[in-house]
Design a protein that fits this description.
By secondary structure, the protein is α/β, with parallel strands linked by helices. The strands form 6 sheets. Strands 1, 2, 3, 8, 9, 10, 11 and 23 form an 8-stranded mixed sheet that branches. Strands 6-15-16-18-13-21 form a 6-stranded antiparallel sheet. Strands 4-20-19 form a 3-stranded mixed sheet, with helices on one face. A hairpin with a 5-residue loop joins β19 and β20. The longest helix is centred in the C-terminal third of the chain and has 20 residues. The protein is elongated. 42% of the residues are buried. The structure holds flavin-adenine dinucleotide. The site of flavin-adenine dinucleotide has 37 residues, from α1, β9, α6 and α14.
Amino acid sequence: MHSNLDEISTQLLNCDICVVGTGPAGLSIVSKLLKINKKIILLESGNLSDTGDHDFLNIGKSIGPRFLDVQSSRLRTFGGAGKLWAGVCRHFSLNDFERNNWPINYADFIPYYIDAYNLFGLNSNFNFEENSNEKYFLYQNLKELYKNDSFFNAKSFIQASEKNRDLTNKFGNEIINSKNINLITNATAVDIKINPFGNAEKLEVFSINKNKLYISAKKFVLCMGALENCRFLMNSRTRKYINANSFGKGLMSHPGFSNIGKLYLNPKCLSKKNNKKINKKLKYFNTELKQEFINKEKILGHGFSLKPVNIKNKLKNMQFNEIINNLNYVNVFENIKCNLQNEINIPKEWDVSIGIEQEFLENNYLKQSTSEKDIFNKPILEVFWDNISKKEIKTIQIANRYFARQVILSKLGVFELSEKLKNNSVFLEEDSINHHIGLTKMSKKGEEGVVDENLKLHNIQNVYVSGSCVFPSSSSVNPTLTVSALSLRLADHLINIV
Ligand SMILES: Cc1cc2nc3c(=O)[nH]c(=O)nc-3n(C[C@H](O)[C@H](O)[C@H](O)COP(=O)(O)OP(=O)(O)OC[C@H]3O[C@@H](n4cnc5c(N)ncnc54)[C@H](O)[C@@H]3O)c2cc1C
């Protein structure tokens, strides 16, 4: 069933589980709770459709030397930023978990990754082993880069379709028609009452017209997005129960640097045999140093992304004389030769970009504003995102060196660094990645993190948090698949204990 908080006259509602937030985290949990016979309340700050009326609640400031977008990267509506995201998915690696003390056993977590891929309509045809070159890889044809003695591994991402990536398309009607789920929109959670035994008793919820509702539940689950989860915990009565030094710290994203260099491949024809799928999808490919070299060099995870330079666009931007000077007759002959052999000519010139894992640093943090409050009289959030760190720069430089070497060793061609990388100006470019990670990390011990391995607040008996805020590390891959997998795992845990 569904109602808008302004239509509800009762002041208190009871349930077994109250889930706050309907982005990918909240809806992944609810996808499992739909199947059980328990009373569930699902709260959403925004409206059922994206009217934009509640987006002003996402106000916040980026106060550090680097800008991090905290407003247009979030959406207050049923579905959350699940209505904005590009659907690019990849699982974290075993090394991501082990190197960064994730308090979760990776092998036990793989089934949840597979479920999460399925949830977004994707086939999880990956090999989850470390150092394996994946079968599911568009560029089998560049396999010289991945011979056994190579420094590099293939790293493929898959993208959920527009329809599948927004979970409201899949579960919206089922939720609204469900008898055990009560979806309440225009319902912003503002505070929570905790009893002397460390049990959360009542959640205080307001509409933007200030209609008030209390929710009493056996278990509360906060899925308000990484930044908002942290702000809620800071602004509410939960704060005094959280004693981890890391609380509000270690804000991470995925710094990305485009066109750091060009890869020039030697002319080569490829067999069309076994490559039908590949030929149609010659878009881009990704690669990363093998884990043993990442560990040896003490650098961070990263991903090179290589895209063929679009010759048509290139020609469009060139002057006539330049075109004449640049006409590459050899290339024309190569194309003819490949065609005669019924083979394809692999693109010669590739733009190389890199995206990196960000390290957990205390000087990247979220704090409460001391000067501005929202309409519920709670401080707005401020994020401090520092300049790119020495280790992050070292990661890019070392990965580049290995890449240049590998390209030559594999007799593929040459890798040329761009001027903006050589003079470091690339590191001053504004980052457009919209991933907010960290701030309330999970840990085995309460002093070290905010939630335990089951995502429960360490010192409160019945409040859980799900989202990328609980990640102890960012990995170099997109976060939402892992958010969803963690949420599916949490749903199983809740079903077992409620
Ligand atoms: C442009 C863009 C592209 C992206 N592309 C990718 C990608 O390709 N791959 C990838 O992995 N990730 C991508 N992301 C990131 C992805 O969108 C997030 O990781 C994901 O949405 C996080 O899900 P969530 O449920 O934790 O939070 P959200 O999606 O932010 O959902 C939070 C929900 O909680 C509600 N809420 C907030 N506060 C309250 C409150 N106090 N009370 C009640 N409800 C509340 C909000 O209205 C919202 O509905 C992208 C993001 C953007 C902006």
